[in-house]
Amino acid sequence: MNEEQTGEEQTSEEQNNDPLHGVTLKNMVTYLVDCYGWDKLGDWTRIRCFMINPTLNSSLKFLRRTPWARAKVEDLYVVTKWNQQHKAKRGGRSRSESSS
Questions:
Q1: Is the pTM above the cut of 0.85?
Q2: Closest Cα partner for 79 from 44, 50, 42?
Q3: Where are the extended beta strands (E) located within the chain?
Q4: In principle, which of 37, 50, 56, 78 could form an S-S bond with 42, CB 3.0–4.6 Å?
Q5: Per-residue pLDDT of the chain (100 residues; tens, 9 = 90+)
Q6: Neighbour-count burial of 77, counting CB atoms closer than 10 A to its CB (0-12 exposed, 13-18 middle, 19+ buried)
Q7: Is 47 helix (H, G, I), strand (E, B) or coil?
């Protein structure tokens, strides 16, 4: 196997391990708003674009220019997706229900 193939395999593996690979910022914000609504999103992230007259376009514009805010949204998206995937694996039961 040559170095080029090794690099391609490594890139593919990194992409498979990246939960944000192929997910646009617009899809992330839309998903989070559908899950939590603008009010909770603003409360949890403390990002003003979600708290004062929020719109998808204005939020995207702000997040694209503000790395710390985008990082918060990306982190919340990853945690939310992970929680939903694991909740589905448990059959939709909470931890307290599954341990009783």
A1: no
A2: 44
A3: none
A4: 50
A5: 454 555 555 556 556 788 899 999 999 999 999 999 999 999 999 999 999 999 999 999 999 999 999 999 999 999 999 998 888 877 755 554 544 4
A6: buried
A7: coil
Q: Which residues, in sequence order, are CB contacts of 62 under 8 Å at separation 6+?
A: 47, 49, 69
Q: Which two tokens stand for residue 13?
A: 């593996």
DSSP 27-74: HHHHHHHHHHHHHHHHHHH--GGGTSS--HHHHHHHHHH-HHHHHHHH
* Domain architecture of the chain: domains with CATH: 30-90 (1.10.720.30)
Single-letter amino acid code for the residue at 40:
K
Distance CA 65, CA 19 (A): 22
Residue that is written with structure tokens 């559908």 in the block: 34
CB-count burial class (<10 Å; 0-12, 13-18, 19+) for 57: exposed
The Cβ of residue 66 has, within 10 Å, a number of other Cβ atoms equal to: 14
